[in-house]
Structures are given as C-alpha cells and as structure tokens.
C-alpha cells in the first residue's frame, strides 16, 4: 500500500495518453493533465501552509470539487464537509499553481504515509483497501468509462465512483442532468 498521492502519480505516469476525466467546463483531461490540475490546486492549498490533517472542503458544484478532493489527499489534508472551505482563488484563480506553495507541497510528500487521515475515520491505506476490494468486484480497469451525474458530485456515491475510477485508471465523465444506467447502490458504503 502507498498513499493516494502515489496512486495519482502512478496512474498519470502509466496512462499518459488515456483520458482521466471529462467535464463540460474542462473537456477531456488526460491522466497527466488531471494530475497537473490536482497539483495546481495542491500548490495553492500549500501556500497557506495548512497543518497535516487540517480538514477542508469545496462546494463549487463543478469538477473543481473533485480535483480539490484529490489535491487534499495529496497534501495530507482531511476532506470533510465540516472543514474549512477551499479558497476559490485556489480553484483556477490567482492562487492556483502558486509558487508560494511549491516547497510545502513537495515537502509534504515526505510527511504522507498510508496511515495519514484522509476522510473522517479513514486513512489512505483504508481507502485503498476499500477501492481494491470494490474494484475487484466491479472488474474496473483502465478501459472502464463511468458516466456520473454532475449534480450529485457532492454525494458519497458519486465521489466513491470517482475514486474507483482513479484507482482503476479509468475514465470518469461528469454529465449535467440525469444519467441513464447510473447505479449509486454499488458505492453506497465506500465512503463515510
């Protein structure tokens, strides 16, 4: 087991030309482009030098929320709706990709471990264990494409499906409106 940050880095390195995320506002992002988006948020977050384990959250209702959640994992922060709101300037604004956070972001990598908390009551290793178990049942891999309702992005089920797609190296598509065939039940107990 490793950290969720190591998982993202590995997926981006291995799946260079494969799509990671499609969203109306962003188009299709390859795995390296998604990693760059996540790291840009991470640099903005770390410019504020938050302590390891600080609870944060984002509620834009768009793909920035998903990238911010992954960035929080990469920064050793806890993703919690009761946490500090992510500054909108970090989400594609003037604090995105902040040079002031570069050293802190790289230093934080050394502070991350599989027992680093990520969700309330769930550390990096536990989430990876859950994802491995679920993806084994789903049979997801880098050929998987999952279409998810953007309007439900804040729900544990859609977030769980996004984490499963990241774990598998699959392609997540966030669509506005109703998504035919979306079955949230499979992801009901993955995230707290």
Protein topology:
Blueprint: H1 4-14, E1 19-23, E2 27-30, H2 31-47, E3 55-57, H3 63-74, E4 78-79, E5 84-85, H4 102-111, E6 117-119, E7 122-123, H5 124-138, E8 145-149, H6 156-168, E9 171-175
Parallel strand pairs: 1-9, 3-4, 3-5, 8-9
Antiparallel strand pairs: 1-2, 6-7
How would you characterize the overall build of this protein?
- This protein is of the alpha/beta class and 192 residues long.
- Helices cover 41% and strands 16% of the residues.
- The chain has 6 helices and 9 strands; from the N terminus they run αββαβαββαββαβαβ.
- The strands form 3 sheets. The chain has a 4-stranded mixed beta sheet with strand order 2-1-9-8.
- Helix 1 runs antiparallel to helix 2, helix 2 (31-47) crosses helix 3 (63-74) and helix 5 packs across helix 6.
- The longest helix has 17 residues, at 31-47.
- It is globular, with a radius of gyration of 15 Å.
- The two termini are 20 Å apart.
Task: Give a quick set of tags describing it.
single chain; 192 residues; alpha/beta; four-stranded mixed beta sheet; three-stranded parallel beta sheet; 6 helices; 41% helix; 16% strand
């Amino acid at each position: 087991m490793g950290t969720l940050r190591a998982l993202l880095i590995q997926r981006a390195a291995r799946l260079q030309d494969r799509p990671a995320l499609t969203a109306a506002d962003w188009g299709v992002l390859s795995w390296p482009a998604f990693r760059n988006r996540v790291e840009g948020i991470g640099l903005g977050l770390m410019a504020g030098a938050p302590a390891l384990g600080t609870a944060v959250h984002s509620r834009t209702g768009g793909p920035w929320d998903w990238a911010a959640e992954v960035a929080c994992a990469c920064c050793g922060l806890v993703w919690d709706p009761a946490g500090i709101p992510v500054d909108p300037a970090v989400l594609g604004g003037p604090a995105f990709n902040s040079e002031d956070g570069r050293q802190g972001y790289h230093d934080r990598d050394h502070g991350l471990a599989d027992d680093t908390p990520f969700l309330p009551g769930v550390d990096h290793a536990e989430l990876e264990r859950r994802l491995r178990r679920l993806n084994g049942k789903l049979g997801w891999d880098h050929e998987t494409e999952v279409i998810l309702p953007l309007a439900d992005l804040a729900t544990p089920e859609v977030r769980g499906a996004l984490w499963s797609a990241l774990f598998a190296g699959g392609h997540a598509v966030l669509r506005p409106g109703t998504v035919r065939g979306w079955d949230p039940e499979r992801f009901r107990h993955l995230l707290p």
